[in-house]
Design goal:
The chain is α+β, with helices and mostly antiparallel strands. The protein is built from eleven helices and 24 strands. Strands 2, 4, 5, 7, 8, 9, 10, 11, 12, 13 and 14 form an eleven-stranded mixed β-sheet that branches. Helix 5 crosses helix 11 and helix 9 crosses helix 10. It is elongated and about 85 Å long.
Length: 463
């Protein structure tokens, strides 16, 4: 429902009762982004009135006049701290208590982001019992859809306690906990995720409308009754109500549901990131998780590998983005691997290094850079391997090479400092390399900082 129509309807219903109200994201216990301008907005049944807002961190008042019952203003925020009180005054007064100033992150995606400690987590009992962090706050957006962009959603900010943490995103919690501990600032986490969803449902309609191929490719994804399928349905209801709320950045875990149209995933994912940044009017950092190995029992055993390839390409082409590799902590029998602690930690490494400027902190595993072919030998070079490469186990796994016949054979792989040397008795004249390029690959190559190498292929042959 559009704002004007929403306000007009309420004016008709409550014309005898004056009222000021706020979106649910503005509530007691919230965290506002530090050292920024926080948008404070809402509605009033008075068609025109002056609204004044002040924060107890400086008690400076900012005033705006509502237009057709809608009002919005910018409130400067200080460095991290609190708790504070936020006061909104018009013909009535609203006081929001226990407000913190810190770092705010949006957590979104499908089930691996949605997954809570109660649904499956390593060492869950102890993690839940130790989850009392008054300066970590959660806001959960309920799963619902809309054909049109909404201005508000249900929800309320809550402090991190054993009771609230056990039903919140595990990945989000462990990401936020590390930021909180390492930066020593309050952290606000907004979870807006829905298991099973394809990326297209999170893209604004006007953004996806320019990509007819994406709309056509969605026909390849089987519709299910448990989650939305059509474009923008989740965005309209679960993301659009948040776009006025200033955030530091976004973490994302999704991709499994796009295996059937993996060839379009890079375009769709990149479009989503760009559209969200446009809506927030901010080039915020966007860090995401490469989908983990799992036995989908597909005929080709490569659909998920193509999604991972698209994710890697997205990181390499979208500025201020980063990808966490999880091919060492997956579970071939469980599409929801339970080591969410490490997923959250690896996401936080990206944020700490690239967003918050923590020095000398490794944040990425090896990423394919180039290859050199001499006779029957291929030498592969990597970025993020300046201090050398390491294997966990006796020998490197999941390297394959092929000749002009396009038939891949297992390669004997040797570590040579920060490079890998590959040979195969079956391939006298190699032309292409693949590493961990199947759905079920469980590789064991790391850099000196213990972060795993991302899957890759050097060919672009049809599969």
């Amino acid at each position: 429902m559009q704002k004007g129509l929403c306000v007009l309807t309420l004016l008709l219903c409550f014309n005898a009762q004056a009222e000021i109200w706020l979106p649910s994201i503005l509530s007691d216990n919230m965290v506002l982004q530090q050292n920024s301008e926080a948008t404070i907005w809402g509605w009033t049944t008075e068609v025109s009135e002056k609204i004044t807002v002040s924060g107890s961190w400086n008690n400076e008042k900012v005033t705006v006049e509502a237009y057709q019952g809608i009002w919005s203003l910018k409130l400067p925020t200080p460095k991290a701290g609190g708790p504070y009180v936020l006061t909104i005054e018009g013909h009535e007064k609203i006081i929001l208590n226990n407000i913190l100033i810190g770092e705010v992150w949006l957590c979104s995606g499908q089930s691996n982001m949605e997954w809570t400690p109660l649904l499956g987590l390593d060492n869950a009992d102890q993690e839940i019992a130790n989850a009392s962090y008054p300066n970590i706050r959660f806001f959960s957006v309920p799963k619902h859809t809309s054909k049109y962009p909404q201005d508000d959603s249900f929800g309320a900010w809550k402090e991190s306690t054993p009771e609230t943490m056990k039903t919140f995103s595990s990945v989000g919690y462990f990401f936020g906990r590390k930021l909180h501990k390492d930066l020593n600032v309050p952290v606000g986490l907004i979870n807006s995720s829905w298991g099973g969803t394809n990326v297209e449902v999170w893209i604004p309609k006007e953004a996806i409308a320019h990509h007819t191929g994406l709309l056509q490719s969605m026909d390849r994804i089987k519709e299910q009754p448990w989650w939305p399928h059509d474009e923008a349905l989740a965005y309209n209801a679960m993301i659009h109500p948040l776009v006025n709320f200033n955030i530091a950045g976004t973490i994302w875990y999704q991709g499994e549901s796009n295996r059937m149209n993996a060839g379009f995933y890079h375009e769709a994912f990149s479009t989503m990131i760009a559209s969200w940044r446009k809506k927030w009017q901010k080039e915020f950092p966007f860090y995401f998780v490469e989908i983990a190995p799992f036995n989908y029992n597909s005929k080709t055993n490569i659909e998920a590998a193509l999604v991972r390839e698209a994710q890697l390409k997205t990181m390499q082409t979208i500025t201020n983005s980063g990808m966490v590799v999880t091919n060492d902590i997956g579970n071939l029998k469980n599409i929801h691997p339970t080591n969410k602690q490490e997923v959250g930690r690896r996401l936080a490494l990206w944020a700490l290094s690239k967003t918050y400027g923590v020095k000398d902190l490794a944040f990425s595993g090896p990423i394919y850079k180039s290859m050199e072919i001499k006779k029957n030998k291929v030498t592969v070079s990597f970025d993020f391997a300046e201090n050398g490469l390491h294997v966990k186990g006796k020998e490197l796994k999941e390297f394959f090479i092929a000749g002009e016949d396009k038939q891949f054979h297992p390669a004997k792989a040797k570590i040579k400092g920060n490079k890998i040397e590959l040979t195969s008795k079956q391939v006298k004249h190699p032309v292409a390399v693949r590493f961990a390029f199947t759905e079920t690959a469980l590789p064991n190559l790391y850099n000196s900082d213990g972060l795993p190498a991302a899957a890759f292929r050097t060919d672009r042959w049809e599969n």
